Amino acid sequence: MKIKFAYISLLITLSLLNIACEEDFNPKTAIRNDLYIVNCTISTSSVPFSSPTVKLLISRPYDVNGYVAQKLDSTSMCINGAEVTLTYANNDYALVDSIQRREKLKDGTYRYYYEKLHYYYSPKMLVSKSEYGRDKCQIVVKMPDGHILSSETTTPLVLQIESNRAFNHGITTNVNSFYWGTSLTFSWGEDIFPDHLFFSKFSINATNLKTGKSFDVEIPVKYVSKNGQSIPVYPNANNGPSVSYEYSAIDFAMKSFASFASDPSDISINGATLKVSDYDRNLAAYYSSTNGYLDSYSIRLDENTYSNIIGGLGIFGSYKVNTRTFPVDRDYIHSFGYKTNAD
Amino acid sequence: MVFFNCSKSTSAFFLFVLILLLNSSNISAAGKGKLRGFVTDSTKGEAIPYANLALKATPFGSPSDTKGYYFVPSIPAGRYILVISCLGYQTQEKNVEIKENEITQVDIKLVPTSIKLQEISVIGQKSVRENEIDLGLQKINASELKMIPSGLESDIFKALQSTPGVSSTGDITARHYVRGGSSNQNLVLLNGVSVYNPFHALGIYSAIDPEMISVVEFYKGGFGPEFGGRLSSVMNIITRDGNKNRLEASGTAGLLSGKASVEGPIPGGSFIMTGRKSYYSKSLSKYFNGKDTPFDFYDASFKANFSLPGIMKNGKFIVHGFLSGDKIKNNDPMIEDYDLKNNILGVNWYQVWSSPLFSVVSVSYSGFDGQVIPNLSQAKTRSNTVSDISTNWAFTYIYDSKDEIDFGLDHKYLKTDLKLQNLFNQESGLKKDATALAAYMKYKFYRYENFGIDLGMRLNLLSLAKKIPLIIEPRFNFTWRLSPLFSVKAALGRFSQEVTTLANENEIVSVFEPWTILPDNLASSEATHMLLGFQAFLSESFNVEVESYYKSLKFLAEPNMKKFLPGDPDYVNIDGQAYGIELLAKYQSNDFYMKTGYSLSWSYKLNNGIKYFPRYDYRHSLNVLLGYNLGWGFSADASWTFNSGMPGSTITGFYERFTINDVSSLDPEITQPAVLWDRINMKRLPLYHRLDLGLSKRLKLDFADFEINASVINVYDRKNLFYIDLKTGKKVYMLPFFPSISVKASI
After folding, report:
1. Which run of H or E residues covers position A325?
2. Are B460 and B474 in contact (CB under 8 A)?
């Protein structure tokens, strides 16, 4: 009886141990070799009639060991030999594959002139027909196997950036806060681009007069206290028409220049620059789909990356970097012990 | 709010009612009387639901309802012996005299037995009314809840997951899916009032403390016209009335929370108050893959019932309330916080009229307030408030023919406010308020001993959504007893839903699911249920139920997964279908209890012509629940769950995804490797199975009664795959071997 009981117990234990084991599971399916990914951006600036730059990359999916996405040698997923046509403001441009600029060596291998093996570029300067933007663009990519991918976009307008107060002698925080508030606000129109996304970067440029080196310090919108330390908070991407910087944050950043020299009088403040990058609706949608963050607890198993490439994946979008410079008030600079260009 | 011209529909409805009333009045009541009363517990005075009352050696009898009320019509005048039985209670016999054209009132006090298993088996007993129409209905009482090894906390929703047709997407969630329907298609009622967020701790537990539950009626489909507003299921939770005879207090300490209850008599009735509060527990981190999560939750409830015989004879008033709150407070400005609250207050008036008419009038408020407070993190602001003021009038009239008619009005004023910040940091909001008014009628043909039919309809007179739902929702349900041991049952019905949550079913952990009335651009969701099944009582202690179902779902409101731009709609309409077959076998003896459920099911959704299986679409599901009375106050229980793999999305490769690093100088050559997903949920995860064991001991000391419960989750430490973390490549498993203990003291 005891032996029978022991056998049964052993059998049950072994069975439990067996079923407790994990089963093999492979979440992978076959790689899609017929899929192409085209990423193309057109960069324009707020300078009228400036020449836009276009960058384009074509790739294909690949496989790696395991389930974690890893970077591969770019040659293994690059596509060369595609015919790429860009129509920009009614002008057609043929984009050239940088891989074609290679030289065959005697040993049969190639020397590449560019590291960017799968980089397509325009050998001619693009011409914008509009002073303010809104140029229509189209790309058509014909793959070596005949597969065609295409997409369209429109370049953004030039933004007119204004501040919430007029500074007679440049930016200063020595203002009447009851009248002007406690922050410096820059705006660029109201809700004219509901689908666009804006990134602001406000920085002050200075030079160390001893070393002759120039450097920028980006101003945060504010500082918050965490565990007794001040943490800078920089502006988020948003589609609002303005951005505000607390005067206290500007003061804090101005003070920080002192750390770049042993004597504050060695620092010369050159001026302030606000850059507002304006993404068109395609880039805006792409950015939001690849930088989405809901919260730290939700666990999602899939993701939807925006694509406007017909016949494949990827993004074709344009953006404009709008730049405006401001002088910094002389008295304000002196209050920190720094110099101005005129000193 | 939408009002529509329904003159034809309304006329048809009232004509239908009239025909039924006339038809019923033809049944002669000469020489006959009626019997009615309440069945209560002799020690606590609480109502006993589902007790069987039968007049010995006659076909006359009736079960008590959830309020302990029973009514037996059309009994020939004379003397009888009334036999009252309810498992868990000593069977009682009582002499009654039925007088011609009179209603005899007999209130019953049943004496409880002390054996736990006998209490449990109240749910398994054969109803005295053999043409009972109960297809798709599961009745669960508090004792059955205790049967299921509780882990950290015993839980009504977890208990339901052992019912065939009910599934979940993991060990860590109390969210349930019924017969292929989404979790927001389940109506949860607490004493008749909608609960909008019935969860604690991000959905891990239900917010409803099982200690306060008297009985749960759970309709998996084909529910009657008295319920509306949801497509899939109804869970009607009725809380205890409290001890009418003496003051009693109890306290329980578990791994996660402490709770206390006080109950006792008040003039003309009784009261009960319960409270539960979490304490900070590292044990919860197991649920979040080791992540420390500063949860803080509480719930509290009260219920007072009283009669005023001097003012309102045979009337009873109930005032009840419920509060729950959940917070995650990180004390770090760079991490978001959460704050969710439920508030419920209701008044019910039950009245037994001198004619065989029973009425319930209730007025209630149910509120939900939830928000994600991003602080300075990247999390997006989300907030949601729901205010629901409802009034219900429900009447039941029982004819001499044994037929019954239920009719009533449901009025609801609902206000929802949903504020979201999209990925562009743009605030968007959906603020709506509307009034719904529905009239319903259900005629129950109980006049034939072997045959029962419920014929009903729900008439939506005013609707919440702009695009009106179904105007008439017909409901049909029948039972045909072919032999004393075997009955065939069927049900058919149409249902509509005008509220939805912003829930992504592919989020395996979802923080909070805000509610809203459907946006104006969406059609109201519709469902059609078709059910067919049979029930066989193979012996007094063993019965088998088989149910098959087909469910068609139309215009479901799903979050738009391709919302990339602020102008894109938040929701889209999609369709779906579900069908399957379920088997439930129950056995009980004095010392042993067994419940086995199996389901074979299919469900899918159709979005833009693409068919996919939701994550809760298990093909096979098996649950075995065993309980055994070991004697000397010990009882043991076990549950084993087996599911075929749930759907999961697959990887069809990797690609270099263009990454925006420097926002003012984009370069498509700057890329990050990314996963290329195949079509949603195309593959199945491995099999899921888990064994849980529990052991409890009751101790009776001079000053208090103690109950010690020990349980072990996942006894053989099965590695059930939860998901694969594609950032680390590691497989994340569901709950591992997990022992726990709780102690309850009652004085």
Report:
1. strand A313-326
2. no
Q: Which residues contact B209 (CB under 8 A, 6 or more apart)?
A: B259, B274, B276, B299, B301
| pLDDT (average), residues A226-246 | 84
Alpha helices (runs of H) in chain A, residue ranges in sequence order: 2-20, 177-180, 247-256, 281-290, 330-334
Q: Give the C-alpha distances (Å, rounded to integers) separating B173 from A69, A321, B188, B200.
A: 29, 47, 16, 10
- Across B404-423, b (16+ Cβ under 10 Å) vs e yields bbbbbbbbbbbbbbbbbbbb
Q: Residue B677: closest CA among chain A residues belongs to which residue?
A: A302
What is the helix (H) or strand (E) element at residue B675, kind and residue range?
A: strand B671-677
Interface contact A41-B665, CB threshold 8 A: no
Q: For residue A43, what pLDDT is reported?
A: 87
Q: Give the separation between CA B163 and CA B623, rounded to whole angstroms.
A: 7
Chain A interface includes B334 (CB < 8 A) = yes
Burial status of residue B365 (CB atoms within 10 A of its CB: 0-12, 13-18, 19 or more): middle
Angle at B692 between CA B691 and CA B694, to 5 degrees: 150
Radius of gyration of chain A (CA): 28
Least confident of A251-265, B139-153, B224-238, B733-747: B139-153
Sign for the pseudo-dihedral over CA of A259, A263, A264, A267: negative
Q: Which residues contact A85 (CB under 8 A, 6 or more apart)?
A: A92, A93, A94, A95, A139, A140, A141
pLDDT tens, residue by residue, B341-393: 999 999 999 888 877 788 999 999 999 998 888 777 767 778 899 999 999 99
Read off the pLDDT of each residue in B66-95 and give the average, rounded to a whole number: 84
How many whole angstroms from its chain centre is CA A219? 18
Q: What angle do CA B535, B540, B541 make, to 5 degrees?
A: 90
Interface of B with A in 168-227 (CB under 8 A): 202
Q: Tell me the pLDDT of chain B averaged across its residues.
A: 82
Instruction: Write the pLDDT tens digit of every residue in A293-302.
Output: 555 555 555 6
Nearest to B658 among A21, A23, A39 (CB): A39
Higher pLDDT, A46 or B115: A46
ipTM (interface predicted TM): 0.82
- The whole-angstrom separation of Cα B428 and Cα B445 is 51
Is 60 exceeded by the pLDDT of residue B192?
yes
Q: Could you say which of A16, A27, A290 has the minimum Cβ distance to residue B650?
A: A27
CA angle, B408 as apex, B405 and B410 as ends, to 5°? 150
Buried b (16+ CB within 10 A) or exposed e, B459-472: bbbbbbbbbbbbbe
Question: Do B200 and B326 meet the contact criterion of CB atoms below 8 Å apart?
Answer: yes
Is B96's pLDDT higher than 60?
yes
What values do phi and psi take at B118, rounded to 5? -70, -35
Q: Does A245 have pLDDT greater than 80?
A: yes
pTM of the prediction? 0.81
Q: Contact at 8 Å (CB) between B477 and B224?
A: yes
Residue B9 has pLDDT above 60, yes or no: no
Q: List B residues 301-320 in contact with A (Cβ-Cβ < 8 A).
A: none
Handedness of CA B498, B504, B509, B514 (dihedral sign): negative
- pLDDT at B31 exceeding the cut of 80: no
Asked if residues A32 and B653 have their Cβ atoms less than 8 Å apart, the reply is yes
Please, which residues bridge with residue A210 across strands? none
Most confident of A171-180, B546-555, B653-662: B546-555
Q: Are B443 and B460 in contact (CB under 8 A)?
A: no
pLDDT for the residue B67: 78
**Please, which residues 129-168 of chain A have a Cβ atom closer than 8 Å to chain B?**
none
